[in-house]
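Reopening this ticket.

The earlier resolution said the output was attached, but the attachment link was broken on my side. Pasting everything inline this time so it's all in one place.
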Amino acid sequence: MLSHTSIAAICLIFGVSFGAHGTAWCQAASQPSQDFYENKQIRMIIGYPVGNDYDLAGRFLARYLAKHIPGEPTIIVQNMPPAASIAAANFLYAQAPRDGTVFASFSRNMPSQALMGQANVEADPRRFNWLGATSLPARVCARWVTAPIRTPADLFTQEFIVGGAGPGSSLSILPTVFNHVLGTKFRVIQGYKGTTDTILAMERGEVQGACASYGQFRIYEQLIRDGKLVFLLRAEETPIPEIPEVPSIFDYAKTAEQRQLMRFIFSSTEFGRPYALPCGDHARGIRRGSAGPRPSGRGGEDQDGHDLSPARSPGAAGRGALPDAAGLD
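Inline output:
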């Protein structure tokens, strides 16, 4: 488990991935003075409702990050959940001040949605200053104990009703991909605010299950221990260490093309829970928030069990790198 000091020191890998791997389309910013942030506020925009795993991780980070930014500004968290966080990404891209006083966390799926030309995505992911991320989440589908679906094989012969939160959310993306690529029979009921809302709907009998990151189910350990919330499948090829017995949906792919399509779409997990700044004059001020020791190892949780594993900048070369300019045109 990472200590509070270690999590603060991560600063979203600001010192490493910010300075060395800024997105090519963002020009280098001028260096602000040491006292630039003194007596100022920084807004952290979270593209999800209060209680979501993005929100919990962001608020935890906000409590400690300011100590590692010159001038120790106050960090205010603002939730902007419409359109499964696409509104937050669009706001950061088109409306947020470009002076280093606003940064945001939004869906890890946004870059691939931009690549595929999703209509409501106005933001160009190449034009963000990508800071880093706090986890590399695994994604799963879970069922309520009374659901008729018992195994992934049942998904090909019976309807499975799950909650959705809009086209940009894992709640909707995973079942939609499974239906189109593999031919499963998920039925997505849209309109839920997030995983918490959907699990309440499962308890009320409105839906039979949900698909989301594994970490979002961790706060329902009692339901899991009581056998009411059961993991049905993982959307990963490799086992999840905490639940190695849960089967992979990749085992049900019949062709190499199906596997390749799912790998591409699910590669958004490489972005973790990302944080970004708009291109602007004082981006480097927050970049410098990397003082103190760095955590060792890849994994980690806060004291409440939330996954806060450090992840490198999505703008870095190699795995997780953004497509070049031609790829998004």
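Reporter confirms the inline version is readable. The domain at 4-136+272-328 is CATH 3.40.190.150 (D-Maltodextrin-Binding Protein; domain 2). The chain has twelve helices and ten strands.
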